[in-house]
Amino acid sequence: MSSTLSENETAATAETSVPWFAAPPVHDIALELPDWYREIQSESWQTFLNLPDPERRDENWRFADLRKLRFAELIAARPADNVESLVQRAKAERVEHFAAHFVFANNRLIYSEVADLPEEAICLPINQALADHGDVVRAHFMKEEGTLGGAKFQALHGAATLSGLFVHAPKGCVIEKPVVVHHFSGGDFQAIFPHTLAVAEDNASISIMDFFESIVDGEQSVIVGGVDLVASNGGRVQYVSMQDESDAGPKHVQLNSSRAGRDANIVSAFVNLGASWVRNESINHMQENGSDIQIFGACLANGSQEYDQRTLQSHEAEHTTSDLLFKNALYDESRTIFAGLIQVQPGSHHTDSYQTCRNLLGSDKAEANAMPGLEIDADQVKCSHGSTSGQISDEEIFYLQARGIPAESARQMISLGFMNESVSKLTGAEIKENLFERIERKFASLRNW
Description:
Elements: H1 7-14, H2 35-50, E1 75-76, H3 83-93, E2 100-105, E3 108-114, E4 122-125, H4 126-132, H5 134-138, H6 151-159, E5 163-169, E6 179-185, E7 190-192, E8 194-200, E9 205-214, E10 222-231, E11 236-243, E12 251-260, E13 265-272, E14 277-286, E15 292-301, E16 306-315, E17 321-330, E18 335-344, E19 352-361, E20 367-376, E21 382-390, H7 394-401, H8 407-423, H9 429-445
Parallel strand pairs: 1-7, 2-6, 5-8, 6-9, 7-10, 8-10, 9-11, 10-12, 11-13, 12-14, 13-15, 14-16, 15-17, 16-18, 17-19, 18-20, 19-21
Antiparallel strand pairs: 2-3, 4-5
Helix pairs in contact: 2-6, 7-8, 8-9
C-alpha cells in the first residue's frame, strides 16, 4: 500500500530536522557495567545518528502526524525535586498487595520496597542487574529489531542510561503478587528511558505493573521505553503498562517485545489515558509449539491527543495461539492509528489467532484509522482480523433514559463498559480494580461529551 503526501506535508518533511540529542543521553550511575553493554550503547548511538527521522513515505508511519515528532534538542532528564512527595503519590496509587515496589523519578531510583518476593527470584533495577547479573541479562536484553518503524527510537534507547527493572523467576518460581513500578517524568525537553526485562523460566510466573506519570502537568517531557518479556516452557508473564501522564505536553514511545516458548503464556496490556502523543509498538513471537500470547489495549483520548498503535503477531511453530483486542474511546479532536499484522510462518500449522480493534467515537471531529492484516504461509489455520468504528447509538441512550438514568450518566456507563472488556481479560482482581478506577477517573474529568 502507498500514501500520497499533500504539498504542505511534503514541504514539512523536506525541512531540515532538528537533532534530537547532541550527545548520548547518559549520566553517571556509579556502577561498573559490563563491556558488552558498553558496546551496545556505543553501537546504538551510531545507529541512532545514521538512521533518518521517521517520514510518511514509510508505511510504518502511515497516518501519523509527524509534526509531533519535530523534537527540539533534547537532554537526559535532570534529577527531580520533591522526591518524597512523588513516593507518597506512588504509594497511594499502588495495589494493596504486591511483591515489590520501585519508584523512579526522571530516570533515577528514589524508593524501593520488597514485600513478598520469593528468595530465588531476582528483582533489581536494570542497571544494577547489568552489573551484578550481566550474563543472565545479556541472553534476553534488547534482542528485537525495530521492524514496526521504531528503529530510531530503539537505537536511542539502547544508547541511553536506563531506569526500570529486571525481574527473573527461575524454574518453578511463582511470584504470586505483582511487582509494581512507578516512573515519574518531568522537565521541558528532558527525556527518560525506562526498561522492563521480565524472564520467566520453565513453569515460572511473573506479574508486573508499570505506571507512567508526569511530575508536573503540561511539561514537554519525552519517554522512550523498552520492554522485553520472555517466557520459557510453561512459563507465564503478565505485563501491564498504565500511562497516565499529563494530557498536554508529554510524548511517550514504548517498544515491546514478547517471546513465548513451548506451552508458555504472555499477556501484555496497554492502558493509555494521558500524553499528547503516544507510540506503542508490540512485536510478539510464538516460538514453540503450544505457545500463546495475548495483547490488550484500553485507550481513552481527548483534546488533540494522538495514540499510534502498531503490532505484529508472529506464529513460528505449530499449535500456537494469539489474541489481540484494542478498545479506543475518542473525544474532542483526538485520533488513533492501529496497524496490526498476524503473520503465520511456513510450517506453523494449526495456528489459532485473532485480532480486533474497536473504536468508540464520542465526537464528530475524532478520527480513527485502522489497518489490520493477515499473512498466512501454513495449512489448517484459524485466523481472523477486523476493525470497527462508531458512535454510541441514540437507541442505547434512550433505553437507559427510560429506566431513569440521565443521558450523561448513560453515556459514561456505556463507555466504561466498552473499555472494561480489555481490562477484564487480565488476571488479578486488585489489578483490574486499580486500572478501572483510573479509567473511571479520566472519564469523570472529560467535558462536553
